[in-house]
Amino acid sequence: MNTGIHLIVDVVNITTKSQALNTIEGIEPLMRKIIEIGKLDVVDEIKHQFQPIGATLLYLLSESHLSVHTYPEKFCCAIDLYSCNPNIDMTQILEAIFSFFNADCIILKKIINR
């Protein structure tokens, strides 16, 4: 039974663009790009700004969910995208993540067909 595709990404060793991890405003452009590339339909969203730095953004999608948790003090973030659309192009999404961080990072990924 194939119910969709699940992308789990840890972006580590972020140096050049590490300031993007500090705030909602810093990381939100990447999330919007992922939503655009995946042609995802956002049903609802919640964002939380941690003090003094760090952010979590969660998007409820008609296709499932998208989230990011940033860890500025560790120069990393975790992105999770699950979509019931098995035709979503996860390669393009990975390229957008890599590009957002100016290729100055290491991406650890797992793609699971569910």
What is the topology?
Blueprint: E1 5-12, H1 24-38, E2 42-49, E3 55-61, E4 64-71, E5 76-83, H2 90-100, E6 106-113
Antiparallel strand pairs: 1-5, 1-6, 2-3, 3-4, 4-5
Helix pairs in contact: 1-2
Describe this structure in words.
The structure is a single chain. This protein has 114 residues and is an alpha+beta fold. It has one domain (5-113): S-adenosylmethionine decarboxylase, CATH 3.60.90.10. It is built from two helices and six strands; from the N terminus they run E-H-E-E-E-E-H-E. The protein has helices at 24-38, 90-100, and strands at residues 5-12, 42-49, 55-61, 64-71, 76-83, 106-113. It has a six-stranded antiparallel beta sheet, with helices on one face. Helix 1 (24-38) runs antiparallel to helix 2. The radius of gyration is 13 Å and the shape is globular.
In summary, what is this structure?
The chain is of the alpha+beta class and about 110 residues long. About 25% of the residues lie in helices and about 40% in strands.
| Principal-axes shape call | globular
Overall average residue pLDDT: 94
Question: How much strand content do the residues show?
Answer: 35-45%
Assigned CATH superfamily: S-adenosylmethionine decarboxylase
Helix content: 10-25%
Uncertain regions spanning at least 5 consecutive residues: none
Strands of the largest sheet, in order across it? 2-3-4-5-1-6
